[in-house]
Amino acid sequence: MRGVVMYAPGDVRVVEREDPQIIDPTDAVIRITATCICGSDLWPYRGVEPVDHTLMGHEYVGIVEEIGADVATLKVGDFVVGSFCISDNTCPICRDGYQSRCVHGSFVAGAIGTQAEKARIPYADGTLVATPGQPDEDLIPSLLAASDVLGTGWFAAIAAAAGPGKTVAVVGDGAVGLMGVLAAKQLGAERIIAMSRHADRQTLAREFGATDIVETRGDDGIAAIKDLTDGLGAHSVIEAVGTRESMMQAIGSTRPGGHIGFVGVAHDVALPLDNVFFAEVHLLGGPAPVRRFLPELIDLIWNRKIDPGKVFDQVLPLDQAAEGYRSMDERKAIKTLLTL
Ligand SMILES: [Zn+2]
């Protein structure tokens, strides 16, 4: 089969890989229908994370081609959406809703690599969720978004305690930040402030439910959020970047007693604990337990209540993956969908 391998920073190739096969009885092999490039794939692309002939891709939807003897909830031919984290969905951590930290967990990125024609998914029952039937073509981008960016934005909004009567601020206008806006809207937030300096992303943020846009950053950005909230700060802040600056902006924008959901992947970020201490805010972050939310997200998409697929503004065949990486790296594309 063909699959994307990153040989070195900036060196993305589509090469022949060995076809995956069932190894454990809890495995499924799926034929991937659509996959995409994640903002986190740009970390190795830019040399920030180590990379050496790495199998790329962790977002995916597809059709079950083969199942192991112990797979109970899926059958061959099912259309499935999978999480970017493998989970058994039965251990104590999974039962508490933190499937991204399953005791049998692992990451799809690197180990499996779903920017490919097929994938072997371990713990298939605990990782994949079947849709009610074969989806209409136009639902596929939205279902694919549920695999990571929507699930991650959703987790961030839940972690930030977004809901009715709340003012939610979103730091970061990448795909996850935009999905955080959508999630906050769906969860009933009263006011949603998107922090963005890019006109195209501001437009999309408004389509997803943003009521206000703040273009400034840092102390000016914090002051702008306070101006909009009677000097108090937002109740709920979604942090979707992962840098010291974005995290300090999130902490500074949150009112005492408020909640921050932080889902930007951090790399060697140190925070001044004095500021964090006196901010007196709730903090919850980490890789999103997408599996917890998949049944609900699939239902919302299937019934056309939400349209997260709009976040894809570039579609390319898998063979042109390198061009997709380049577009996202140069911020010419928000998110690139790869077709097979
Ligand atoms: Zn588990």
From TrEMBL:
Q: Which cofactor does it need?
A: Zn(2+)
- Asked whether the keyword Oxidoreductase is assigned, the reply is yes
Q: Which CDD domains match?
A: FDH_like_ADH3
The Enoyl reductase (ER) domain sits at 10-338
What are the protein's UniProt keywords? Metal-binding, Oxidoreductase, Zinc
Q: At the top level of its lineage, which domain of life is listed?
A: Bacteria
Pfam families recorded? ADH_N, ADH_zinc_N
PROSITE patterns xrefs:
ADH_ZINC (PS00059)
**UniProt-recorded Gene Ontology molecular function terms:** oxidoreductase activity; zinc ion binding
Query: In the UniProt record, does the keyword Metal-binding occur?
Result: yes
Q: Which family does it belong to?
A: Belongs to the zinc-containing alcohol dehydrogenase family.
Which PANTHER family does the record match to this protein? DEHYDROGENASE, ZINC-CONTAINING, PUTATIVE (AFU_ORTHOLOGUE AFUA_2G02810)-RELATED, ZINC-TYPE ALCOHOL DEHYDROGENASE-LIKE
Q: What is this protein called?
A: Threonine dehydrogenase-like Zn-dependent dehydrogenase
Query: Which source organism?
Result: Nocardia neocaledoniensis
